[in-house]
Amino acid sequence: MIHLSFGVEFQQPTIVAEALAQVAIHPAWQDEFFFAVDEEVKRNRYPPADLVDILDGIRADKKLSGAPHWEDDNKIRDGIMVRAKDEMVKYASQWRVDPDRLEEAIAEITNAAIYFTGGAQHPPKEIKFDFFYMHAVNSSLFFSSFIKQPWISTANKVKLLEWKGRLDLCLYASRRSPVPLLEEITNYVPKGQPSSSEWSTIFERANAFDDDGHAFIDSVEGAGLNWVRSTGFDEAWEE
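Structure (tokenized):
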């Protein structure tokens, strides 16, 4: 998705073609989940809700929040979809997008992704961002470009935003639904001097770091591993 998004935003047909080629050979096991959610929406058994409120519901549902196990190879496919698929479909169906409020939907998706990614910490451990959650944040940044494309119908723009939000909900649940600690965001103090938070300095720090492009500054500059993987599990924080 991120590969495709770069191609669309910067109007690079070759990159778009590369991305679509990747999609064509990518496993499609998530399709069953998306289509099941669409069918549940048609039944209209559960009212629409804000993404942050849905996150709270997922976390409070013990069957769903406990569905992924540490030993699962893929915690969505082997955890959520095996042990709590119906519950995940129920909560995901509550996220719906009004075609007249696309920009608001993008803002909500971005806000929710940053909320559960930034807040998923484990005091007193050093701040680390979850490698999987990070992609919910990165991919949310491109949807403003998608909704400006005249060749994408309004119905398909709505579908893109709905599926993006629903996948983020599924991703959140797959890491054991950690409590987002809002104070870790509101009270956060960046490393270094005040100037270290300026964009020009952030770019310099990112360029100087030997990384493959996954750079959440401060997380990758800390001691030990650059990332935490599956942040809701105690085992993820042992190193």
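The mean pLDDT is 91. The first helix runs from residue 2 to 9.
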